[in-house]
Amino acid sequence: MDKKTTSYTVSRDQLYTDKMKSDVYPFLPLFCKDFFVGINMNTTVLTRYNYGLDLRVFFYYLTECDGPFFGKKPQEITLEDINKLNNRDIERYLAFLGGYISPIGKSYQQDSSASKARKFSSVRALFRYLYNNELIDQNVTLRVSMPKIRDKAIIRLDDDEISDVFQCLSEDNSFGNTRQNAYNQNNTKVRDKAIITLLLNTGIRVSECVGLNVDDVNLKNRSFLVHRKGGKQSILYFNEEVQCALTEYLVFREESIKSKRIELESIDALFLSTQMNRISVRAVEIMVKKYATQINCLKKITPHKLRSTYGTALYRRTKDIYVVAEVLGHNDINTTKKHYAAISEDIVKEASGKVSFGSGMGSNSTFDDNN
Predict the structure, then answer these.
(1) Taking the CB of residue 50, how many other CB atoms lie within 10 A of it?
(2) Per DSSP, what are the bridge partners of residue 213?
(3) Which terminus, N or C, of the chain has the lesser number of Cβ atoms within 10 Å?
């Protein structure tokens, strides 16, 4: 794989490798390093970093407030200490997450059921590793139920809302401020339209979008190479709308780089900030929000909502959940069913016409005696 293809993922992995050293290891017991080594082959460095932040909260609880090892520092906790924990200690930890001062942000935090479940999963992963490697005598986390997560309504954009978004992108005076309109027109509008068009018409994750390089895109056959979670790669295809938006943006991108007197070949990222650096996930989120606030929409529009909108539209056109899962890059079909395709709603609607009972039952019955 050449340098351009790997530059984004390598730099991102290096960033989180450094953050592990500064934000995680100094705040955990020494045996946790063995845990991170043990899961190295099956996880990304970002996943391990998030595990580390969750474990920071767990060991903070054990040594602070009413924790079972109050007075110790997290780094001083031993495997013998872990062996002394019981299921009630874990249950008290989950209760603690309902309201606490975070050791990371030093601010008051109340975790949702989903956040509690995620943090508990991280603790379970650690205990499973320690138990499987015979470093502790029992895995007490198995005696504690996972916090129940209430299903959230999946928000998607309607056709008229999508039209409003693109109208806002097309207008010269999308914003109330004349100065902002002029800046937007000269510096970001073409790029913003290309990003939103790509997200809405392909369903890729925002992290996958910002990770694209120029060499990943083939305008001639309308395809691009996307770098998925876990290092996987997929070739996806886009429609004429995306082709037009990207073609316009690539011209704008080249002119912008040359105006800064920068070597065109020295920048491989497809989507650039105004400073000519690879645009960040956070910047795209802010950009989408900027346009969303200009249209009359009660929904909170985010890059992930654009992904949900595409996934739902694709299912309704193909009626094939496996196609949707493949395009969206899901390893688990249940993720697709739960988050993207309005399957339940559509199936219920279809089922309403499959069986018919009434005065005309004799001639229209759908029963098959052979079944």
Answers:
(1) 17
(2) 269
(3) C
Burial classification of residue 32, based on how many CB atoms lie within 10 Å of its CB (0-12 exposed, 13-18 middle, 19 or more buried):
buried
Q: For residue 20, give both structure tokens.
A: 């592990």
| CA angle (39, 40, 43) in 5-degree steps | 80
Question: CA 59, CA 123: separation in Å to the nearest integer?
Answer: 10
Structure tokens at 216: 């990943």
- Please compute, for residue 134, the number of CA atoms within 13 A of its CA located in the half-sphere on the CB side: 0
pLDDT at res. 5:
44
Q: Where are the alpha helices (DSSP H) in 260-293?
A: 281-292
* CA-wise closest residue to 191 among 179, 199, 180: 199
Exposure letters 165-184 (e unless 16+ CB within 10 A, then b): beebbeeeebbeeeeebeeb
Rounded CA separation 290/269 (Å): 23
Token duo for residue 28: 């955990």
pTM for the structure as a whole: 0.75
Collapse the DSSP code of 253 into the 3-class scheme (helix H, G, I; strand E, B; otherwise coil) and give the result.
Answer: helix
Give every CB contact of residue 28 below 8 A, 6+ residues apart in sequence.
52, 55, 56, 59, 74, 75
Six-digit token pair at 131? 């138990």
